């Protein structure tokens, strides 16, 4: 910013831009991450076998380690796959913000004129049966190679893609992995013994949130 200020005619980045970026990181980052974790808890309550497998991997690879750190992610491919599947299934930002192309382009045989408003639809990819068969099923194995290592899947785009993808994507990925891994490392979270089970219904909104729910939490 100071370098640009010192260059005549180049003042595109200023304190106003910086404030906007910090605000985006704080508001957008908190809302989407919290919503993803809430959905993750719900999905894992419905899939206790996946939780047991994840907890077993953590114990076998890290033993009694108190705090799981981001460097441990490479030792925990199944847990990392669970975090990926939470992001895919939760789909907390199904439709990105509108953009406009700066010149005429042809994509897939379709002519798109300059100035056309384009709104990427992430859910069209995250729920594509050709890429993720039985897409409504919560299945971390989608992100594992046959040898059990983590598999890179280009179609996992919960933060959109390209130059205009989410600014805090890497931070959100780390947060979701660390919170889910540490939470289920220290606690068992299950359906309440009485009352209504958590709903899988997604409420409409910029980020589809779950209904309020109750669960039973017990220290392991």
Describe the structure.
- The protein has about 220 residues and is mostly helical.
- The chain has a single domain (about 20-95, about 135-220), classed as Cytochrome P450 (Cytochrome p450).
- About 40% of the residues lie in helices and about 10% in strands.
- The chain contains six helices and six strands.
- The chain has helices spanning about 1-5, 15-45, 50-60, 75-90, 125, 170-185; strands at about 100, 105, 110, 115-120, 185-190, 215-220.
- It has a two-stranded antiparallel sheet with strand order 1-4. It has a two-stranded antiparallel ribbon with strand order 2-3. Strands 5-6 form a two-stranded antiparallel ribbon.
- α2 (about 15-45) packs across α4, α2 runs parallel beside α6 (about 170-185) and α4 (about 75-90) crosses α6.
- It is globular and about 65 Å long.
Tally of discrete structural domains: 1
Instruction: Identify the overall geometry.
Output: globular
In spatial order, strands of the major sheet run 1-4
Pairing-aware structural class of the strands and helices?
mainly alpha
The CATH C-level class name: Mainly Alpha
Distance separating the two termini? 50 Å
Q: What share of the residues lie within helices? A: 25-40%
List low-confidence stretches: none
Number of helices: 6
Count all strands and give the number.
6
Radius of gyration: 20 Å
Largest sheet: 2 strands, antiparallel
Overall mean pLDDT: 89
Task: Output the helix-strand order.
Answer: HHHHEEEEHHEE
Q: CATH H level: which superfamily?
A: Cytochrome P450
CATH architecture descriptor: Orthogonal Bundle
Which fold name is given in CATH as the topology? Cytochrome p450
């Amino acid at each position: 910013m100071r370098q640009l200020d010192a260059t005549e005619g180049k003042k595109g980045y200023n304190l106003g831009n910086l404030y906007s970026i910090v605000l985006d990181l704080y508001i957008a980052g908190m809302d989407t991450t919290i919503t993803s974790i809430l959905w993750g808890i719900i999905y894992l309550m419905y899939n206790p076998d996946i939780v047991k497998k994840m907890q077993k991997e953590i114990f076998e690879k890290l033993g009694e380690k108190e705090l799981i750190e981001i460097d441990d992610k490479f030792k925990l491919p199944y847990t990392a796959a669970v975090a990926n599947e939470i992001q895919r299934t939760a789909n907390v930002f199904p439709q990105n913000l509108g953009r406009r192309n700066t010149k005429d382009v042809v994509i897939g045989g379709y002519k798109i004129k300059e100035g056309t408003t384009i709104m990427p639809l992430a859910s069209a990819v995250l729920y594509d049966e050709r890429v993720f068969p039985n897409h409504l099923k919560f299945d971390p194995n989608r992100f594992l190679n046959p040898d059990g290592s983590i598999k890179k899947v280009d179609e996992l785009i919960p933060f959109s893609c390209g130059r205009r993808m989410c600014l805090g994507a890497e931070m959100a990925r780390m947060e979701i992995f660390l919170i889910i891994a540490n939470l289920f490392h220290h606690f068992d979270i299950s359906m309440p013994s009485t009352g209504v089970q958590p709903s899988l219904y997604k409420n409409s909104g910029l980020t589809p949130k779950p209904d309020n729910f109750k669960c039973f939490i017990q220290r392991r």
